[in-house]
Amino acid sequence: MKIYYISDLHLDYKTLEEKNEFLSLLNKEDLFIINGDFYNDYRKTIDIVNEIDKMGVKGYWTLGNHEFFWLAERRNIEPLDKAKNKDLLNVPPAKMWDKLVDTIKAKTAKNKTFKFLETGTTVKLPNGWTLIGDIGWTSFSTENYELKNKDFKQYEWFKRWNFPWIKTQNEKWVKFANATIKKHDKVLIATHYPMYYNDKFPETSRFSSKLPLEKTYWFSSQKLEIPKGKEVVFIHGHTHDVSYKEGHVTNAIGRQGNAKKLELKEIILK
Questions:
Q1: What distance in Å separates the CA atoms of residue 233 and residue 125, rounded to the nearest whole number?
Q2: Over the chain, what HEC string results?
Q3: pLDDT of the chain along its 270 residues, tens only?
Q4: How far is it, in rounded angstroms, from Cα 28 to Cα 65?
Q5: Potential cystine with 160: which of 72, 102, 123, 139 (Cβ 3.0-4.6 Å)?
């Protein structure tokens, strides 16, 4: 069995032919990990992961930021189908995110082969490796700056994020990840956002020209503890880069205008 990875499908910007081309790459013999940003609509993400499961494809998936943005920007979701989403739209912002995650979990709970990878779930892989994953929220800090309450208030308008909720998710995730790394010698970590400390992007990165505060928002210091003798490999998406450097993998089809070649990245775990 081989293990393949891809992220950032962004199928909103792809034709039906391109979607079917992607699905044709999935087979029942191997295992596939997909790290979020399937669609700009969480309901379409639910539909495609259920479709992959019905194909009998084995694998795991995490959520990306685009599944959340579509709900958070309520002006976007209301024209789509306000009636069918009133249970989410009527939830106060402070509880909206938990409601969304609960909804996604409930509508994919019966999947038999292609499963949602969330905090608290561990999966045994070949050669003694353990797979864990999460929705991948940031911790709002870099080595140079820590966001303060005044910063949160200033940026609360941005995608209607609920900062206290995200900080809570981050604390939960870091605690679980560190406990898993301590218990297991080989850990594969799958998240949408980069999870390793002070991620370095080239000057050509579309994030590099952002303001320092926005850079702080996106670039996280998760403070994962990796003792000597432990093997930890991170696979993430979000950056729309294709690389395999220093044990970290990011691979993406990409959005319209910066699309990459459609390919799956094989992850070799020795």
A1: 13
A2: CCEEEEECCCHHHCCHHHHHHHHHCCCCCCEEEEECCCCCCHHHHHHHHHHHHHCCCEEEEECCHHHHHHHHCHHHHHHHHCHHHHHHHCCCHHHHHHHHHHHHHHHHCCCCCEEECCCCCCEECHHHEEEEECCCCCCCECCCCECCHHHHHHCCCHHHCCHHHHHHHHHHHHHHHHHHHHHCCEEEEECCCCCCCCCCCCCCCCCCCCCHHHHHHHCCCCCCCCCCCCEEEEEECCCCCCEEECCEEECECCCCCCCCCCCCEEECCC
A3: 999 999 989 888 888 998 999 999 999 999 999 999 898 888 899 999 999 999 999 999 998 888 876 555 444 444 344 455 555 556 665 566 777 788 889 999 999 999 999 999 999 999 999 999 986 566 655 555 565 666 666 555 455 566 677 777 888 888 899 999 999 999 999 988 776 544 444 444 434 444 444 444 445 556 778 888 999 888 888 777 666 555 567 777 766 555 556 778 899 898
A4: 28
A5: 72
Interhelix angle 163-183/93-108, rounded to 10 degrees, is 50
